[in-house]
């Protein structure tokens, strides 16, 4: 497999299978986020709702792009890890995946809506932190804390946004929707009006697609981590990218950077810019007169990826901080050039996307009932109305789409659970919320990161000891 010996091929295949298992568990763990409202408002039968949700999860991954996937990849110091023994990389990957699956299954068993995003981020941080203190870390590589901070902010803000926006949406519903049926609890022997049913199916579809669009990309990112760690020479760079186009873009970016007047910058920013210049200069030398990646040595392929990531990250950060004395038009040109250059590193093969799509879609169709019951019955004290279901799903889908557009992983579970709570709060305030359920969910959310970081780090040390 990919030119590896039989033992490494078997380990690589095992890692890919476990990554698909994580996405499968993610599917049935998070199905409730999309189908709880249509089931509890009797809009769709459970079987139909789950299959429909699975289909749109599948399509969401296919159409999702790579921004969130690369957010996962960039958390780890991959440029350091690719130089290790492949079995060392296997220990890292297995520790990361198993810890995420263990906590996901535990919370699913207890019927607690818990964020798969939190479990995965915690697991990644666990192996990254553990690696920092290992003797194998000869380059002082560390977790990308800047990226981790961005992701942390998105995970923190998303439930607050879900709660607040749903209260606002319910207010707008009450103000502008005159048909009182939409605010009533579903009747056992009565189907919802057609327009209400259409609205609820539409919002269920939106959340399912958005879940695949965001959560599915996390699985894609996981497999890319595995492939780059095991077979960096084949997957560190996009083999289908026109290297001549990348070379032109690197030259243009280097020219932009060279022309910047550093006398108007502070000392610390100048040092950072000089490092970016050095990386771009190296890229200019290595890529000069190259027609394709086959003409580049194995060592240089890895160094190209490392220098592209270093240069673009530094220049992007300087732009974000406002440290570069350039006009808005020039800054836009710089950012556009960086996007073009990153096409050679930020990519995913289609077979990876299809594999994760199938895993998430099939997982969505299984094991949904435990958490659906929690979301549908145990967050609020009253039965979910049509308006509450629609407003919760509408806010959840919008929030997840927004996060995907920004390339940030966000918790579908957190967003929808907080949105359901917001819809219940809008009816009778805190009196309409079940405190014990919200307390259990809150505790799980608080504990997820530290528990997954700890399990992941311990498993990494354990697996590493077997290798040594």
Task: Describe the overall structure.
With 468 residues, the chain is an all-alpha fold. It has 2 domains: 6-234 and 350-467, no CATH class; 238-344, de novo design (two linked rop proteins), CATH 1.20.1440. Helices cover 74% and strands 0% of the residues. The protein contains 19 helices and no strands. It has helices spanning 6-30, 32-40, 46-62, 67-73, 78-81, 86-109, 116-132, 145-176, 194-230, 232-235, 243-258, 267-287, 298-321, 328-341, 350-364, 369-377, 386-405, 412-428, 435-467. It starts with 5 loop residues before the first helix and ends with a helix.
Low-confidence stretches: none
Number of domains: 2
By DSSP, the count of extended strands is: 0
The quaternary structure here is single chain
Largest sheet: none
Portion in strands? under 5%
Cα(first) to Cα(last) distance is 24 Å
* Secondary-structure element pattern, one letter each: HHHHHHHHHHHHHHHHHHH
Shape: globular
CA radius of gyration is 24 Å
- Average pLDDT level: 81
Give the number of helices. Answer: 19
Task: Kindly name the structural category.
Answer: mainly alpha
Helix fraction bin: over 70%
Key descriptive features of the protein:
single chain, 468 residues, mainly alpha
């Amino acid at each position: 497999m990919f030119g590896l010996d039989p033992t490494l091929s078997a380990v690589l295949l095992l890692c890919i299978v476990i990554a698909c298992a994580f996405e499968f568990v993610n599917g049935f763990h998070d199905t409730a986020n999309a189908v709880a409202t249509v089931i509890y408002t009797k809009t769709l039968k459970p079987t139909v709702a789950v299959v429909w949700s699975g289909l749109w999860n599948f399509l969401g991954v296919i159409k999702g792009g790579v921004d969130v996937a690369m957010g996962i990849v960039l958390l780890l110091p991959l440029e350091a890890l690719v130089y290790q023994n492949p079995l060392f990389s296997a220990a890292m990957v297995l520790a990361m995946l198993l810890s995420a699956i263990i906590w996901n299954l535990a919370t699913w068993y207890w019927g607690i809506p818990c964020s798969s995003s939190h479990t995965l981020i915690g697991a990644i941080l666990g192996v990254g932190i553990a690696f920092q203190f290992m003797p194998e870390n000869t380059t002082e590589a560390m977790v990308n804390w800047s990226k981790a901070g961005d992701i942390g902010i998105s995970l923190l803000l998303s439930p607050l946004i879900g709660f607040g926006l749903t209260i606002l949406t319910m207010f707008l519903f009450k103000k502008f929707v005159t048909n009182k049926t939409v605010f009533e609890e579903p009747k056992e022997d009565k189907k919802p009006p057609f327009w209400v049913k259409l609205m609820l199916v539409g919002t269920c579809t939106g959340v399912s697609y958005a879940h695949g669009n965001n959560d599915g990309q996390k699985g894609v990112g996981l497999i890319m981590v595995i492939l780059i760690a095991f077979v960096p020479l084949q997957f560190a760079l996009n083999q289908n990218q026109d290297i001549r186009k990348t070379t032109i873009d690197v030259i243009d970016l280097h020219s932009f950077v060279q022309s910047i007047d550093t006398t108007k910058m502070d000392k610390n920013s100048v040092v950072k810019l000089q490092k970016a210049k050095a990386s771009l200069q190296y890229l200019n030398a290595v890529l000069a007169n190259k027609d394709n990646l086959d003409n580049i040595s194995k060592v240089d392929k890895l160094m190209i990826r490392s220098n592209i990531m270093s240069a673009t990250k530094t220049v992007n950060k300087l732009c974000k901080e406002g440290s570069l004395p350039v006009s808005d038009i020039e800054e836009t040109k710089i950012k556009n050039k960086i996007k073009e250059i990153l096409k050679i590193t930020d990519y995913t093969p289609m077979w990876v996307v299809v594999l994760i799509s199938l895993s998430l879609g099939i997982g969505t169709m299984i094991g949904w009932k435990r958490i659906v019951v929690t979301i549908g019955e145990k967050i609020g004290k009253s039965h979910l109305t049509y308006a509450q279901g629609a407003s919760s799903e509408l806010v959840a889908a919008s929030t997840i789409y927004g996060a995907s557009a920004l390339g940030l992983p966000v918790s579908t579970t957190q967003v929808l659970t907080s949105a359901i709570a917001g819809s219940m709060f809008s009816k009778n305030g805190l009196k309409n919320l079940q405190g014990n359920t919200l307390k259990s969910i809150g505790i799980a959310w608080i504990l997820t990161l530290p528990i997954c970081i700890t399990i992941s780090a311990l498993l990494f040390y354990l697996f590493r000891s077997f290798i040594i």
